[in-house]
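URGENT: need a sanity check before tomorrow's submission.

F., can you look over the Transport permease protein record below? I want to be sure the sequence and structure line up before it goes out.
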Amino acid sequence: MTVLRETWIVFHRSMRLTLRNPMWAILMLSQPLMYLFLFGPLLKPITAQISQGATTNAYQVFIPGLIVQLGMFGAMFVGFGLIAEYRAGVIEADRVTPASRISLMAGRVLRDVVVLVVQTLVLLIAAVPLGLRAPWGGVLLSLVIVALLGATFASLSYSVALITKSEDALAPLLNGIAMPLLLLSGILLPMQIGPEWLQRLSDISPLKHVVNGVRALFRGDISNSSSLWGLFWVVLLTIIGLTVGARTFRKESA
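Structure tokens as predicted:
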């Protein structure tokens, strides 16, 4: 109960700071919205080829990729805020408190997850007038996946930020990781329409299976093997991310 209370205190402080300056959250949402309005309409003429007959709704293919992208990129760069706090002396102040080191991370991660879920809801609402149709069960499970992805990448981002303690080191590292993940995950277009060598290469990316799983959920195939594999990978990634983040916070904040 003490850990939960301390986590809530850290979350409450972090959320207040976000609400005072929401520009970062708005900027992170602007990119998926631009993809939605400027790139989404281009998919309609090639929907049959993309879905391979599984669906006639282009946005059932495109929106799942966008929300996974939001869950990934929306949390991947939160470490910059932690570096700013480190330089301002906030981390040093946290170290002298009796608060659990796990709570110091969990409260910040919970804030990032809440922001991501709200952003995802805004994106889904904006997509409905454009033609998005999806079962409620699949949408709710997709929100859970986005939340888990956000927790994963936020934890890892905070870990790297605590280790590097420098924007100059963090920025190229995250950008170098983000681009291959984006291109091999099939976020914008399914990898099935690419050449065989590219499909085989993309199989090494867990995010590809997560994206395929969310697309299956948006079609209503909750018990589909793609959905189950997507859930498996996102849970595994979350366990790894939270474990790494917790160990780093305990070590660096000792």
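My own read: The first helix runs from residue 2 to 20. The mean pLDDT is 83. If you see anything odd, call me.
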